[in-house]
Amino acid sequence: MKIIISHTSAKPMYEQIEEGIKKAIYDGEFQDGEMLPSVRQLAKDLNVSAITTKRAYIDLEHEGFVYTISGKGTFVRLDRLSQLQDNRERELLEKMETLTEECCKVGIEKHKLTDVIGKIYDKNGKDESK
């Protein structure tokens, strides 16, 4: 798992850690029940405080991505992954709908939006037929 933290980003470091771990989970880098690095080890690896890492782990646990066993560690939880992905997709599509309505109100043409979307999908190697 490779997490890159930007100390100059406006996004809090704990959120950057959360996003990095979620990406690794979605990308299949973990097996169900696989142990994450300890809070202290990840904090050391990322050059952040243990409190920052702990916050990320707590948030991930509340969202259902991981579970913690006291004295043993924090483990990846994949049994709810498809439900979490469905929820995330629904949230993003709702945001997209709201943003698209705002674009319409200010007169941005449809082809400009589809061009932007197409460029992003092309840049990320995503096939539009999937």
What does this structure look like?
With 130 residues, this protein is mostly helical. It folds into 2 domains: 13-76, Winged helix-like DNA-binding domain superfamily/Winged helix DNA-binding domain (Arc Repressor Mutant, subunit A, Orthogonal Bundle), CATH 1.10.10; 81-123. Helix content is 58%, strand content 6%. The chain is built from 5 helices and 2 strands, in the order H-H-H-E-E-H-H. The protein has helices spanning 13-26, 39-46, 50-63, 81-105, 110-123, and strands spanning 66-69, 73-76. It has a two-stranded antiparallel sheet. Strand 1 and strand 2 form a beta hairpin. Helix 1 (13-26) packs across helix 3 (50-63). The longest helix has 25 residues, at 81-105. It is elongated. The relative contact order is 0.10.
SSE topology sketch:
Elements: H1 13-26, H2 39-46, H3 50-63, E1 66-69, E2 73-76, H4 81-105, H5 110-123
Antiparallel strand pairs: 1-2
Helix pairs in contact: 1-3, 2-3
